[in-house]
Write a structure and sequence with these properties.
Number of helices of chain B: 12
Number of strands of chain B: 13
Structural class of chain B: alpha+beta
Oligomer: heterodimer
Largest sheet of chain B: 5 strands, antiparallel
CATH topology of the largest domain in chain A: Tumour Suppressor Smad4
Strand content of chain B: 5-15%
Order of helices and strands of chain A: HHEEEEEEEEEEEEEHEEEHEEEEEEEE
Largest sheet of chain A: 7 strands, mixed
Shape of chain B: elongated
Number of helices of chain A: 4
Strand content of chain A: 35-45%
Number of strands of chain A: 24
Strand order of the largest sheet of chain B: 5-4-7-2-10
Order of helices and strands of chain B: EEHEEEEHEEEEHHEHHHHHHHHEE
CATH architecture of the largest domain in chain A: Sandwich
Distance between the termini of chain A: 40 Å
Number of domains of chain A: 2
Shape of chain A: elongated
Chain lengths: 390, 613
């Protein structure tokens, strides 16, 4: 028997073993749903509730060799950082932002001259501290945001690392040097040029033996929510993150509603007029316009595209990509097939046919516990009579 | 001690000598040369030192005593202005296209601070040097070499804003100045020429102004033209639109009648309007005529009254009364005319409103009728289709039953019946021939009795015809017998064959081949209907392959069917691969979703149902 072993990503090895079977939805050993990475076709990875794939997103941060970590009082230190992408499946990373925080001061953003970090590749970035005026140990916190892309989707995660610097009593010296200048028959001038001469001394090197020192990385989930990198940035759910494994409960869709987390291979829940997967189609849920008695309104149903809407959880938010020609109305905004991804919030009503808003709508409700959404209820308006096929 | 400042006495001067009389004083005097001036101290005809912003003192008792002992010295001081100064002078030169161009040259000059004493070379009288004198020296030399040379390379319309030309003139001027007065302590800091407007530019400006004016007029003309065209197009569009709508709305004869009626009504309205307008015009004409007659009469009365000595006041009063009456009549006429026009407009509008309302109601009724008719047509079509399908089904069923019955009867009784039919036909033919022979014999006897040689010839001809008819009959009978025998054989064979064999034989294959096909169909182990379908396929295949013998049929199946079976085995060889259980591995079926899982699985990989603890 294989015992589930915890690993840094929280995914048990047994889940990876069962995820090899293409159509497996649950782990046969531990019974957990298999949440596949959006790039599962390339990486074969699984994600946890935080949505981070440890196969795709494996950044490492190093302090370059010969880096100085000790400075005199009033001095400025330059930290040569090395970003390394340790992904073993050739997935590139994109370092979008870097912040530096010294002690208790506010974080400041560092301008990045590069962005792409190919698998197995490394990029260098020099971060300069401010003048360290106090003697003693100073903490430097380096936080960065790494993004992974797959077609039109993108997931961003923040990682942080901290290192401490020793600031010693300074031995600096101020010398006033006088320069005399004289003109033709016009006397002389005296100019005072203050020059600060730094006393040379032994400096402590961070790396041992000329090797770069790896800095331990920690997921900065709180920082992600605070910065709006993950989770909702406005409304009543501000700062709340939707779990990747959040259960989606479909109400009003008949008896065989596929409630549960999104467990498709690409993490996309497709909705449309086309038949569902159970009936040999491509959609996870078939949407047809019905009247009060449950009879299908063929004319209005034809206005729904075969694949009308794709739902997925990205960046800690429930997102939708509109693929239907008629578009959808989310809240008060109409979204067409050419628009960017739309974020669906709590209480939003997704009107499937904007021209016939009363024909069919999906009402979204989310329940948040401790800053995380674990259950999303999608209610069909109007609801289908019980016992009707979807 | 307070210093006395030594500067140029006149701003027009560039340099000036200060003579020894200035420095003669009893007491020592301290002089100051400001930083923007240069002081050249000369003693006994030689330069002692050049000062910029310096102090020095002269005179005094001590120096005088010293002079008495050691002899006196002659001291003089040259003050020069070190600041740059501008000099402007007019210049006229001829361009490449032979146009005289005028301009003002701006020269920024300065005494060379490195060689200030050389300024003496420019001073003719050792007293002073004006700025104009210094600049004119350069001008006379630079005229031909710089301005004429530079302008002769460009056309008159290219001098303005020509940075290259300005640079060239400045460089040439600096070069000439360096050549002329470089060693005299004068240098050019900058030079440029501000060109006056020349003839070519004037002409171009006038032309451009004329073009702008023409464009403006053209634009106004285009705007007006476009307005007129737009108004015209709008009017034409409205008229066309009305006509088009009328034409479009004609769907049947009633619409056409309505349209014609509308046209007639419009025509009548127009005619009525014309008639009224003519009446009004006539009425106005009558009023004018009455007015003119009354005026003429009044004037005649006035003349008569004047002639008779009547009081003109009374006459004028009467004239005013008549004029007032005439005006009132005019006004009432105008009011009546307007009232008529208003009534006419109101009636027209009401008629138009009624017409539009009628049109709308007509259209609505028409649409309702169309919808009803279409719905009725659809229902009728559907009913007709149902009835026709039902009839077709019944007819097909009856026909099939009849056909099956007939075939069965034919198979059961076909042989005897056909044999009887052949015998009966044979007997009938023999009887017909016998009757024909007897008839011919009677005719021959008659002919023998009636004619001689001619009858004999006729008899010969008849005999020959009889023989020919007998031979043809024999051939026909042999053919019929052969066909009857073949049919009889087939029926005898069919009575012993299975339906599959009959199918094959009917398709033209031999009974042996049909037997092989039947064996193969039965070997598939499928039901009767599927056997018949398979049999049909095999028969088609055998026909395509022109299989005629039993060996050929067996060879065909050995090669073809084994291949098909091999392909089928390959396709299904990995059964259960999608279910997650490896071949040969023990499996368990999920009670919830019926998915086949490996027996060791604790949970169903399809639905997550717990399979074991």
């Amino acid at each position: 028997m294989v015992t589930p072993v915890a690993n840094p990503g929280g995914i048990a090895p047994c889940c990876y073993q069962h995820a090899v079977t293409a159509d497996a939805i649950f782990c046969g050993e531990c019974g957990k749903p298999l949440l596949r990475c959006m790039a599962h076709e390339e990486c074969g990875g699984l994600v946890g509730d935080d949505g981070c794939c440890n196969v795709c997103v494996r950044p490492q941060l190093y302090l370059d060799k010969d880096a100085v970590t000790e400075v005199k009082t009033g001095g400025v230190l330059v930290l040569p950082l090395v970003f390394y992408n340790a992904s073993g499946v050739g997935r590139p990373l994109f370092i979008t932002d870097v912040w530096v925080r010294e002690g208790e001061s506010a974080r400041r953003k560092v301008e990045l001259p590069w962005k792409r970090l190919d698998a197995g590749g490394s990029n260098r970035l020099s971060v300069q501290t401010g003048a360290l005026e106090r003697q003693g140990r100073h903490g430097i916190e380096i936080t960065f945001a790494a993004a992974t892309n797959y077609f039109m989707r993108e997931e961003r995660f923040c990682f942080t690392s901290s290192l401490s610097l020793e600031v010693e009593q300074g031995g600096s010296l101020v010398i006033n040097q006088t320069i005399n200048s004289s003109g033709v028959g016009a006397g002389s001038d005296t100019v005072y040029a203050p020059i600060r001469l730094e006393s040379q001394g032994e400096t402590r090197k961070a790396a041992v033996g000329g090797q770069a020192a790896e800095l331990g990385l920690q997921r900065a989930d709180n920082f992600e929510a605070a910065q709006g990198i993950r989770g909702y940035t406005e409304g009543p759910l501000k700062g709340v993150v939707v779990n990747r494994g959040a259960r989606i409960i479909w109400k009003g869709f008949g008896d065989e509603a596929p409630s549960g987390p999104i467990t498709t291979r690409d993490g996309i829940f497709a909705i449309g007029r086309g038949r569902s997967v159970r009936l040999g189609g491509d959609n996870q849920l078939q949407l047809l316009v019905t009247d009060a008695a449950g009879a299908v309104d063929e004319q209005l149903s034809q206005a729904i595209s075969r694949r009308h809407l794709e739902l997925f959880i990205q960046g800690g938010r429930l997102c939708a990509r509109v693929t239907g020609q008629a578009g959808v109305m989310i809240g008060d905004h109409k979204h067409g097939a050419d628009d960017a991804l739309a974020v669906i919030g709590n209480g939003d009503i997704v009107r499937v046919l904007p021209k016939y808003p009363e024909a069919l709508a999906l009402q979204i409700r989310m329940r948040a516990n401790y800053g995380q959404v674990e259950e999303i209820t999608v209610t069909r308006v109007p609801a289908m009579p019980e016992g009707m096929p979807r | 001690m307070k210093s006395e400042q030594l500067i140029i006495s006149d701003p027009r001067l560039l340099a000036e000598f200060i003579g020894p009389e200035t420095f003669r004083s009893v007491f020592e005097t301290r002089y100051e040369v400001p930083p923007d001036h240069l002081g050249l101290l000369m003693r006994n005809g030689q330069f002692v030192e050049a000062y910029k912003g310096a102090h020095f003192s002269v005179g005094g008792l001590f120096n005088q005593l010293k002079g008495l002992v050691g002899g006196s010295s002659s001291i003089s001081l040259l003050i020069a202005d070190l600041k740059t100064f501008q000099y402007l002078y007019d210049v006229t030169a001829r361009t490449k296209d032979k146009v005289d161009v005028s301009g003002v040259v701006v020269l920024d000059l300065q005494i060379n601070p490195e060689k200030p004493q050389n300024i003496l070379g420019l001073m003719e009288q050792r007293r002073s040097l004006t700025k104009d004198e210094a600049a004119i020296r350069i001008r006379s030399h630079a005229w031909e070499r710089v301005f004429e040379a530079a302008l002769s390379r460009v056309n008159a319309n290219e001098v303005r804003g020509n940075k290259g030309l300005q640079d060239m003139i400045q460089a040439d001027l600096m070069k000439e100045c360096e050549r002329i007065a470089g060693d005299l302590g004068l240098m050019v800091r900058a030079a440029s020429v501000n060109w006056a407007i020349n003839e070519v530019e004037k002409q171009e400006a006038a032309r451009a102004a004329a073009i702008r004016e023409t464009d403006r007029l053209e634009f106004q003309f285009e705007t007006l033209k476009r307005d007129l065209e737009r108004e015209h197009e709008t009017t034409v569009f409205k008229m066309n639109n009305k006509t088009g709508i009328d034409k479009l709305s004609i769907n049947n004869l009633e619409d056409l009648r309505r349209l014609v009626l509308d046209r007639d009504t419009a025509f009548d309205d127009a005619r009525e309007t014309g008639r009224r307008i003519a009446e009004m015009k006539q009425m106005g004409h009558d009023i004018d005529k009455v007015k003119a007659a009354q005026l003429a009469k009044l004037e005649g009365d006035i003349r008569q009254a004047t002639h008779d000595g009547v009081d003109l006041k009374v006459v004028n009063e009467r004239k005013r009364v008549i004029e007032r009456n005439t005006e009132e009549l005019d006004r009432s006429h105008q009011l009546t005319l307007r009232s008529l026009e208003r009534d006419y407009d109101r009636e027209t509008r009401e008629l138009q409103r009624d017409e539009r309302r009628d049109d709308r109601e007509f259209d609505r009724e028409g649409r309702q009728l169309d919808r009803t008719e279409q719905r009725g047509n659809r229902l009728e079509d559907r009913e007709d289709l149902k009835t026709q399908r039902r009839e077709d089904r019944d007819y097909d069923r009856e026909t099939r039953e009849k056909e099956l019955g007939t075939r069965e009867k034919e198979r059961d009784f076909g042989f005897d019946g056909r044999k009887k039919e052949v015998d009966v036909a044979d007997k009938e033919e023999y009887a017909r021939l016998a009757r024909q022979r007897e008839t011919d014999k009677v005719a021959l006897d008659k002919l023998k009795g009636l004619a001689g040689l001619e009858a004999e010839q006729e008899r010969e001809r008849l005999t020959r015809r009889i023989r020919e008819a007998d031979a043809a009959h024999d051939r026909d009978m042999d053919q019929r017998k052969l066909e009857a025998q073949r049919e009889a054989d087939r029926l005898v064979l069919g009575a012993k064959m299975t339906p599959e064999q009959i199918l094959a034989v009917n398709a033209g294959l031999s009974p042996a081949v049909a037997k092989i096909l039947e064996e193969q169909a039965k070997a598939q182990g499928i039901d009767k209907n599927a056997q018949m379908d398979l049999m049909r396929q095999m028969v088609e295949q055998a026909n395509r392959a022109r299989v005629s013998s039993e060996e050929q049929a067996r060879a065909m199946f050995n090669s073809g069917m084994q291949g098909a079976v091999g392909v089928a085995a390959g396709a299904g060889g990995k059964a259960g691969a999608g279910g997650g259980a490896a071949p040969g591995e023990a499996t368990v079926e999920c009670p919830k979703c019926t998915r086949v899982n490996p027996a060791k699985a604790k949970f169903c990989v399809g639905c997550g149902e717990q399979l074991r603890r």
